[in-house]
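Listing 4. Sequential folding, example run.
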Amino acid sequence: MSSKQEQYAEPGSPPNAPIVSFLGPVSSYTHQAALASFESDTYDYEPAQTITDVFTAVQSGEAALGVVPFENSTNGAVIFTLELLADRHKQFLDVTVCGEAYLDVSHYLLGRKSPGFQDASGTCTPTLSSPSPAKPRTKPTCDLKHIERLYTHPQAWGQCEVFLGAYLKGIERIDVSSTSRGAEIVKEDTTGTSAAIASGLAADIHGLDVLAKAIEDRTDNTTRFLIIRKGIDEAAAHSTAKKKSLISFTIDHRSPGALAQVLDSFRGYALNLTSINSRPTKVIPFQYIFFVEFEGSKLNDPSGRVRGALDSVSKHVQSWRWLGSWDNKLEVNSLRGRGGFTS
């Protein structure tokens, strides 16, 4: 077993250990975030094929906790997770957010080197729309002319556009459930013409060649993961750490200023907003479910500011739902001089 495999190998968990469900397979970035968030010898880690499977395991009680990707600093929100938080069919009414984790993400291009490979030139391809294309931060370790298709999670494409535009322009892109699943598919491809965007750990575990390292556009590429559970984390009510909370709501789009009134509810109680997202209601075209994340906790609110803001919100919306309160890990990591865990 290699040093990387040993780093992420899970020791034997105690009998009947609580389960942490994560978007798998093993070696996914979500797996790495899960291992960085909990005591490995306390929990039993189980990979799930999809983010929906993680939510289902938590709602059913099969898993005590779940870890899912929520947003990336380069490519924005993970819509699959937002869709599940929207919960239009009320399948996950007991699922709440109880924590978060940050992981510095460095993408590798994984596959098989062609026989007699040569060093890549590093030439960028100009186009009419981009006559002077941005040059990627890294070069391939070999020629990539044999690559005919790429596999990765949809979120990764936007994090590596400069490299892909320079070296793999026009190559077929195939979405898969996770970056590590892409590595599994490439491992099974006997033609050697497939490649995956995944972690360096995935290369080690699946025995793939590293065709390029650190192909992400930005060195500060970071993904935030949410930790979910069933019901309320009572221990959070006694924590003195700085908090964040998340709510979802719908408004009457025919009412002028309805969204502004909701947002003004937070300003009126001096609560800082940290994130705003939206997804279609799928009831009426071009009307939306909004998600607002803000600093403060519904579970620990001695000043009453959160309660006051949410009472005000309720007067301006058609419906709303509290989705959880948790410790603000970005605040903690910033005080330590870093934006997240290292991968």
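-- end of first protein; second protein begins --
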Amino acid sequence: MERLDAIVEQLRIWQQRINLVAPSTVSEVWTRHVGDSWQLLALAPDARLWVDLGSGGGFPGLVVAAALVDRGGSIHLVESNNKKAAFLRECARIAGLPVKVHAKRIEEFAASFAEAPDIVSARALAPMDKLLDYVEPFLKKGAQALLPKGQDVEQELTQAAISWHIDAELVPSVIEPHAKIVRVLNARRR
């Protein structure tokens, strides 16, 4: 809890200088962002190595990292915006999190990352079709993707199915009644 408190405190400080989350959601940070991120952990209780793409304001990456301290795991946060990457590094330092921040584009990171993560995640990053482009290199290494999505998830999956063969399941969000988490086991271009 102390680690999560530190993350939220830093978010509130940095949010005044750079846009990390939608300003309208800052007052709901514990449910809208922390809780929404925390629920991913139940879907991957044995995961030790995570990759979070487009980490931005640190959700779910920093929240997952707070849990991985006790599990003996680590997470790689990929964020191309240098200011946001600086925020992620500072949060990790202050909270003592097992994080490595990569200030580079996702495609560049994926091409250079040799490890095989257990989980790859991305929240509020892109439509499903584009997300599958980003996560596919990690799926090929045996990772599962956990992708929180809003109420339009079925439409996004239908659109993505035009270009992709997708082996996925929808898990209801415990935070937002209309949201789902897309657990992708495999995806390949048609």
